[in-house]
Hints:
By secondary structure, the protein is of the alpha/beta class. The protein has 7 helices and 6 strands.
Amino acid sequence: MRLFIVRHGETVWNAEGRFQGQIDTDLNEKGLSQAEGVAAYLKGHPFESIISSTLSRAHVTAQKIAAACNIASVRVVPQFTEINHGEWEGCLADGIRAQWPDMLDTWHAEPHTVTMPGKGGENLQQIYDRVVPALSALENELSGDVCLVAHDAVIKVMLCYWLEAPLSSFWRFQVGNCSLSIVNLEKGKPPRIPLFGYTGFLDTGFSQPEQKGL
């Protein structure tokens, strides 16, 4: 299986720098344009399946790709939904720092040690524990090219898994909105990543702004 991984397009909360997890935010005008851009880049590709998380920002991005590739429907897999930020959902970094200064610093220095505060708040190991079995199920079921539209934390955790890197490596990856990565997954062989975080089709140049709400 060859997995094409796309992060969803930009939302208002991305632009504002708010922590965005499982609250269902929509793509903004720029995000819709980005989704159309990646869809145009992938136009006509013979995907065996197109998959997204349950959240509309990923699902709408996936629908754009499906339409461009003449795929009838998008398959929703809940395990690929973004991390639950708990009480940080919708907050700006400055507000979080005022209430949880030590935890925010730890999140940026040792992300693998932090469980998001409040009801439903998750940690990276929980993301790993739901994402990896879902990936294995896809590998067992599908053999062709598959497009997966997911989220920043989910994609970074998957990269840690494929590269056999500890979850403490989380911040070593930068995954832009509507960036495209490709992972070759062949049984009996280690994963190979021939493309990572590509956004050339969006005319973004060689630098990506670092989002604050992460």
